[in-house]
Amino acid sequence: MRSPRPVSDRDAGGVPAPGLNKIFEVVIRGGRIVTPEGIQDADVGVVDGRIARIAPAIEDDAALVIEAEGRYLFPGIIDARVHFNEPGPAEWEGFATGSAALAAGGGTSYFDLPHHSEPPVLDAAALREKRRLAEETSCLDFALWGGLGPQNLDKLAALRDAGAIGLHAFMGPDGTGSLPTVDATVLREGMKRAAKLGMIVAVHAEDATLVAQYSAIQKGKSRKTAAAWLASRPVETELAAIGLALELAGETGCALHVAHVSSPEGLGLIDEARMQRVDVTAETSPHYLLLNARDVARIGVTAKCSPPIREEASRAELWRDLRADRIQNIASDHSPAPPEQRPKGDFHSAWSGVAGCQHGFALLLSACEATADQDLPRLAALLARNVARRFQLDIHKGVIAEGKDADFSLIEFGSAHAIKADELWTRHRSSVYVGRRSKARVTHTFLRGAAVYADGRLVNLSAPGRFLRPQR
To answer: What is the homologous superfamily of the domain 76-390 according to CATH?
Structure first.
């Protein structure tokens, strides 16, 4: 990782105003503010880390003024699903490198997953230790998932009291073996308890039995290709798990979040359940919207993930579902690994996970450049407002509005540029998006009114990220 520098006003890309006693700490002038309701041309003034004023023009003095004409102010992205791994295999990714990469991609908050840690976050003590490490090195605000498995059903209340953002369960293999797969009996009991505790349950929805059956068929053929990986996890494995989770959520009254849905058929099941008053939200990830099975074969094992990236028809249909409001949020599911964990050409043994929190969101914005007036507000809901609402963080997070935390990024559109490995802030300079061209570029990211990323540099590292807990 590149060495960060301390911030100054000029590092933040603005003009420091002379004198003291300024009314505003920061003023962003001339930008186009993106909200879920639409786009407006206005200035933004920040005081004490909060948005104090939004107005057509702010002429008052400010300690720092950034001229943002031609750029969009996009709400700080809340990435509800990342693998930053500490304590444990931080050589895969850690809070410092992972949060830096997300900041460079317009993110201001994230939720770290419970299983790829040592120990996994299955009790309050493990959550407190993970929190301590993140508070030391994360440059962004963060929340922490607690795990849900057969071994910790009696510890869920303590996880809630320690501030877990929710409970995460694997209906298929978790890839590490640290969080056992939940069967219907365990998931039902966990959901019952979660409902009483007022906690949301997220599921990795792949049916473990079907995955084992299809995987055995492919391994028996000695096929290690991208096509074999896709065949080992056909859409049926996802639909069976989603169907069971929806049934149990409806039975128990539990709030359910279905993570990284890869198929329009899965979204269809969730949409039907929502119409039947099941409390469920659907999440997908940028790689399912940006890539297809042919891309996976071209890119190689770097693009292996679970559920797998599917055929072009599914990718195109996911965009139609997005624009029809059948998706409630988008999370990166950033899951990096050292190169030795991804042997080339062997899709069965390579680590499963896409590393992409730095560029996936900007590439979605880039894909919507021609339809910005309609689609950027929609993405503002999917990447920020909806996440804050669903996970009870919306008192301070999720939108650019007076009284909210001054969390936002500045986005500019220009000629397409190719993403390069040496741009990456992740521990390993490997990403499924290297070589892909983007018209969108994040020039600045502000967290609580302070720049954390500006013009290719990390800044303001003297103010670490804060722990976020739901306002239950």
So the answer is: Metal-dependent hydrolases (3.20.20.140)
